[in-house]
Amino acid sequence: MMTDVPIRDAATVILLRDGAEGPRVLMGQRGRSAVFMPGKFVFPGGAVDAEDFASSVALDVETLRRLSAEASPELASALVTAAVRELREETGLLLKETREAEFIFRAITPPGRPRRFDARFFLIKAEDIANDPDDFSRAEDELSLLQWVTLEGARAFDLPFVTRVVLAEVEAALHKNMPPDHVPFFDHREAVGKIRALI
What we know:
The protein is α+β, with helices and mostly antiparallel strands. It has one domain: Nucleoside Triphosphate Pyrophosphohydrolase (Alpha-Beta Complex). 23% of the residues lie in helices and 28% in strands. The chain is built from four helices and nine strands, in the order ββββααβββααββ. It has helices at residues 61-67, 73-91, 151-154, 161-176; strands at residues 7-17, 24-30, 41-42, 45-47, 102-108, 116-125, 143-150, 184-187, 194-197. Strands 1, 2, 3, 4, 5, 6, 7, 8 and 9 form a nine-stranded mixed sheet that branches. The longest helix has 19 residues, at 73-91. The model has no long low-confidence stretch (mean pLDDT 90).
């Protein structure tokens, strides 16, 4: 029987780009030998590291308010720092301003998985990237097949369940042409998960 593992704070980036066929998001495929979600297509992201707490970054006022509902100011800053770092490491893309990261979703990995994360999802627009959004030459090797894909096209990929939920939330917000009025939280600390609004 698998012993449950600690839940680590994590940050995920939903990079959004306008296109002729509609909005697109950046996704890549995890290695098939990866311990966590092998072979799945995911957004860039990963666990918060100790060094992410080393410096404080500027946050959007609304993002800070939403993160602070259940996170200290130090953790809020570290989460955005981790999001920017993971984006750089996994795609080679650089964010112009940390204020552009918008907190839109939170999810905790269910029990029984080899790794568990308390992941906060940040929406960032491609226009806020400092370098060429099609140049992944500086990316490390954690994700392969990095590509911009329409929201509809992404659904054809082998996706984790939570990624499908997040895509639906993004699409709903875009349809209303406004940010969501609350942050959905897929709280799966226990065996039976529940979705509630953070704020």
